[in-house]
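pinned: reference chain
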Amino acid sequence: MARPSTAARRYAEAAFEIARRDGTLDRWLADLRLAAEVAAVPDVARAVDNPAVPFATRREILAALLGRRLAPPAFNLVLLLAQRGRLGAAPAVAAEYKRLVDRERGIVVAIVTSAAPLEPAEIEAIADRLRASTGARPELEIGVDPGLIGGLTVRIGDRLIDASVRGRLERLRDRIVAGAR
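pinned: its structure tokens
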């Protein structure tokens, strides 16, 4: 997972502090997701981040697209991003904000990749195991990678738990090579 830029993290932290103070964490989350979707449209990003376009015109574009759909504080953040030529950072701001909300609520995001599709019972067993080991509520993102051969990998933040056949074979190969020296 890519690390957010310092600017995106700071915008997200500011929004989070305002939302926590006002008790509007979920509203901000929805607003930032919507802003990120709009900012991801190439034509919108090109027009709004273009310093050659007067800011009044860029503000009108954003007001037409988002003005009535966002709460005023979130819309002000979007305008600030546009004014500074950083509307393209909106997806990173939204992702970092979601991470902050998850941390506040005791939720950890775990990316689970298996060699074959998992059964619901297996997914529940993985969630239970992660709940026990982290002390937090896991939110699982499930993926399939046949290149793992068998088993699975779990990534929680910077931590990787590799219980795949491919990983075991690579570790065995490394030990054999290290022993042959």
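why pinned: The two ends are 35 Å apart (CA to CA). The first strand starts at residue 107 and ends at 114.
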